[in-house]
Amino acid sequence: MSLIHALKRVRPYYYGLLALLIVLDLVWLDAVRDVPLWVIGLVVAFGFAAEFLPARSQRRPRAERRENPGEPPAAEVEPPVSGRWRALNSPADKVPSHGTRVYGQSHAIDLVREAEPGEPARPGFGWWPVVRRNQDFPAFGEPVLAVADGTVVRVRDGRRDHLSRTSWPALLYFFAEAMVRGCGTPAAVVGNHVVLDLGDGTYALYAHLRRRSAAVREGDRVSAGQRLAGTGNSGNSTEPHLHFQLMDCPDPLEARGIPFHWRGTGVPANGEVFTVPGPRGGGGGGSAVKGASEAGRRGA
């Protein structure tokens, strides 16, 4: 196991230890005073290593959406949604797209549904109301689709869909909530999710899905364009949206991200609104995942 993978494995325990030191500092100050300075320094140093070593970022000019020479080739797959959407945290602008390579999300992308003409607009960010119902967002319950023919290897859909975090007061709570989630398993962060095995060592992760919306079970064979579940607001999420990524193994703790390219859509940039025609059929020749070889991924 590499140093980076080892840091990913023990990263949650760091947050637990840090929280314990804070509690001791508040409740039992003398206990902290007896801790040698080198121990405190080691905890802080480990925190920096766990957070920043796996997360070296390379920004990409919007006008130059090209792959880095050191990256594996992009896998060409179908879009995971249909309709009108906005891209956030896009790898077209920065890698790692979410500021970290933890959980294999270096090339992940977030998608929020934008209203069609004549529909109520997607709520914006502000001071009031503090929270909103998930039904207020166009993305809630929208179908997420298989990007290629594959096999379902993981389904988790028992976590609740919490209220939105799209106000300044709720955002403060969200940051504290995220620290707590970071102390748990990856499922606490990605929420309800589905993982597909697309073949050739390529896996697709769909995260933050709606509770009890899964339309597939582990072991099922699916076709490109087939409905897998509905978009939700579970896990580390501020509003109903889809977090999508490709990775080189089914376990996010061990995975490395894989670049992708959506047929007919490309990779939308941050803030870009795009439309995918739909509905689509369930077997439209999406069995081949092009452009990503096992040797290329492991050698990156």
TrEMBL record:
Pfam families xref list: Peptidase_M23
Gly residues bias: start-end ranges: 279-288
Alphabetized Gene3D superfamilies for the sequence: Glucose Permease (Domain IIA)
The keyword Transmembrane is assigned to this record: yes
Superkingdom as given in the UniProt entry: Bacteria
Residue spans crossing the bilayer: 12-29, 35-55
Keywords: Membrane, Transmembrane, Transmembrane helix
Residue span(s) of domain M23ase beta-sheet core: 188-247
A GO molecular function held by the record: metalloendopeptidase activity
Entry annotated with the keyword Transmembrane helix: yes
UniProt region (Disordered), positions on chain: 59-82, 220-239, 277-300
Matching PANTHER family: MUREIN HYDROLASE ACTIVATOR ENVC (PTHR21666:SF270), PEPTIDASE-RELATED (PTHR21666)
UniProt name for this protein: M23 family metallopeptidase
Organism of this sequence: Streptomyces xinghaiensis
Organism phylogeny: Bacteria, Bacillati, Actinomycetota, Actinomycetes, Kitasatosporales
